[in-house]
């Protein structure tokens, strides 16, 4: 049998009608809002009607620092849910929606892989139920209302040089990072410097994912700081009376999307903030709904555990009032050897020395989960055919010294059956291990101390250096009453440090915070480090060049 691409496997799968998936998940038909035969949104009233039901167990899947060799975090999440389903457990999967930026940029698709995927794969990667477009529309409505207010007389006294709200588009487009608009005379607006973020970096995305219901969403939208007056007073979306119209655009996007895995496990795919520039988790509504419906919810957090998992635990869990029962840390032998200095074309060759040099990356992430956050953990080794028994045994020995079990995952090639060993290990630690979950910092700590806590405790930095501009902004935000918010670190995903070239477990480094901004609606402070950008660019050969559609509407190239 020849090699099949992810999209070929997905297209050969016979999906169940979404009504059957909803019924299996315990969702009554009255809560279903159909988007074709295989997708549905779930009425948020379901969550209200289940408020007296006890929460099930939450399993968080995270990973080592990502490499070009790949780790397979989403694939492992899907396969783990399918394995628990095979074992007769009442389980649901909760994932983020892919952004079209990476789909057309590097990844070409982000719905799992091999025989561990969520479907309909093409729909999920392209447009889906329109959530991304609704977020872009709400974001850009607010931008239009800001500039219209200025054009119509500027009664709020907005300083056009200090507008912090950007426009957005769900595409990697470096050309739009910095623009000048309002040109062509007075009738066309006030000339000013402007810019675009990618939609998944918009504060609207974070707000959608951190809202409990529609009224909570509207209150959070109202609190968005869009800029400052000439007297240095913050101007909010509420000052512009924009929250009602924005909420109207987002009312359907707020509802979780129900789909299925290849093996018919119910799955929510909802919300998609990046973890290197936002908080990197799917929506609170989808997670809470899943925890009420299922005994076990499998969810993931973006990029490595220093980014997605830290934000999941310090931001999402804090706001939602939830905690994981267990954490799965995904790694591959190949990725660990890359952290040990091996080039991509030599990763299939047994190399215990390189594995030993790269292993500290996994151990540091593991130490953060178990020691800093106090959570039980399992290491999932996403197995490749080129992995040698000696390499696998070395990983087991190293993790055993931390009393952490290791399970092999072969879900890419075998689906849920390839995840039984991992699923059993997860069930065992939930049953037998202590759970002493705690946050890295407390709400009442100064902003600088919160940032320092993440940098030193999670990244292993010697300390934090703040630019004069960042210090000035911190002082201003604390004086305005924003000091009690959690911090969202915008940092490269490739390293614990703010330098993407420092792989493994770097030592003797400091983190530089070059800018600070408040996401008052989302409810967190963003600290920008290194060269992190809120609008990515396309690579030299974008995945878009390989994506196509034939005369029958069949899509190819989404790998």
Q: What's the short story on this structure?
A:
This protein has 559 residues and is α/β, with parallel strands linked by helices.
Rounded Rg? 23 Å
Dominant shape = globular
Mean pLDDT metric = 94
Indicate the structural class: alpha/beta
Count of alpha/pi helices: 19
Number of E strands: 25
In oligomeric terms, what are we looking at? single chain
Description:
The strands form six sheets. Strands 1, 2, 3, 4, 5, 6, 14, 15, 16, 17, 18 and 19 form a twelve-stranded mixed β-sheet that branches. The chain starts with 5 loop residues before the first helix and ends with a strand. The radius of gyration is 23 Å and the shape is globular. By secondary structure, it is an alpha/beta fold. It is built from 19 helices and 25 strands. Helix 7 packs antiparallel against helix 10 and helix 14 (352-372) packs parallel to helix 15 (389-400).
Summarize the topology.
Elements: H1 6-12, H2 18-25, E1 32-34, E2 40-42, H3 45-49, E3 57-63, H4 73-86, E4 91-95, H5 100-104, E5 112-113, E6 116-119, H6 121-125, H7 131-151, E7 158-163, E8 167-169, E9 179-181, E10 192-194, E11 196-198, H8 203-209, H9 214-222, E12 225-229, E13 234-236, H10 243-250, E14 257-261, E15 266-269, H11 284-293, E16 296-300, H12 305-320, E17 326-331, H13 333-339, H14 352-372, E18 377-382, H15 389-400, E19 406-409, H16 411-414, H17 420-432, H18 447-459, E20 464-466, H19 468-479, E21 487-490, E22 511-519, E23 524-529, E24 548-549, E25 555-556
């Amino acid at each position: 049998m020849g090699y099949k691409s992810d999209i070929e496997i997905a297209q050969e799968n016979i999906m169940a009608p979404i009504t059957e998936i909803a019924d299996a998940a315990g969702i009554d038909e009255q809560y279903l809002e159909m988007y074709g035969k295989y997708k549905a949104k779930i009425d948020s009233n379901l969550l209200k009607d289940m408020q007296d039901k006890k929460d099930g167990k939450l399993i968080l899947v995270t990973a080592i620092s990502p490499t070009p060799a790949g780790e397979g975090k989403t694939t492992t999440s899907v396969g783990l849910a399918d394995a628990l389903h095979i074992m007769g457990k009442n389980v649901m999967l909760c994932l983020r929606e892919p952004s079209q930026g990476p789909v057309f940029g590097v990844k070409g698709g982000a719905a799992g892989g091999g025989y561990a995927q969520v479907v309909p794969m093409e729909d999920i990667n392209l447009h889906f139920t329109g959530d991304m477009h609704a977020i872009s529309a709400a974001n850009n409505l607010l931008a239009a209302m800001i500039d219209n207010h200025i054009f119509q007389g500027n009664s709020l006294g907005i300083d056009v040089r200090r507008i912090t709200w950007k426009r957005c588009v769900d595409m990697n487009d470096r050309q739009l990072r910095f623009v000048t608009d309002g040109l062509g005379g007075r009738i066309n607006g006030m000339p000013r410097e402007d810019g675009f973020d990618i939609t998944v970096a918009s504060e609207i995305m974070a707000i959608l994912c951190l809202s409990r219901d529609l009224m909570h969403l509207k209150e959070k939208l109202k609190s968005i700081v869009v800029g400052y007056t000439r007297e240095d007073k913050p101007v909010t979306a509420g000052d512009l009376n924009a929250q009602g119209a924005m909420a109207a655009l987002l009312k359907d996007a707020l509802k979780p999307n129900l789909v299925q895995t290849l093996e018919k496990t119910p799955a929510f795919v909802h919300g998609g903030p990046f973890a290197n520039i936002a908080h990197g988790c799917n929506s609170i509504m989808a997670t809470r709904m899943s925890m009420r419906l299922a005994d076990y919810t499998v969810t993931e957090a973006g990029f490595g555990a220093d980014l997605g998992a830290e934000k999941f635990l310090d931001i999402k869990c804090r706001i939602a009032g939830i905690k994981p029962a267990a954490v799965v840390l995904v790694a591959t032998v190949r990725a660990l050897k890359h952290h040990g200095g091996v080039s991509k074309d030599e990763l299939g060759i047994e190399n215990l020395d390189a594995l030993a040099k790269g292993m500290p990356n996994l151990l540091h992430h593991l130490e953060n989960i178990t020691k800093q956050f106090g959570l039980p953990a399992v290491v999932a080794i996403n197995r490749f055919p080129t992995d040698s028994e000696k390499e696998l045994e070395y990983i087991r020995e190293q993790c055993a010294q931390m009393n952490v079990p290791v399970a092999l995952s072969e879900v890419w090639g075998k689906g849920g059956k390839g995840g039984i060993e991992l699923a059993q290990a997860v069930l065992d630690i939930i049953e037998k291990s202590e759970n002493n979950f705690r946050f890295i910092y407390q709400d009442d700590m100064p902003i600088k101390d919160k940032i320092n806590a993440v940098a030193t405790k999670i990244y292993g930095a010697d300390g934090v250096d703040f630019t004069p501009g960042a210090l000035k902004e911190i002082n201003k935000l604390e004086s305005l009453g924003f000091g009690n918010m959690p911090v969202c670190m915008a940092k490269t995903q490739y390293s614990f440090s703010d330098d993407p070239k420092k792989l493994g477990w770097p030592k003797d480094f400091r983190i530089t915070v070059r800018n600070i901004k408040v996401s008052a609606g989302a409810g967190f402070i963003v600290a920008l480090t290194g060269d992190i950008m809120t609008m990515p660019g396309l690579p030299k050969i974008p995945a878009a060049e390989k994506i196509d559609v034939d005369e029958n509407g069949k899509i190819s190239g989404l790998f």
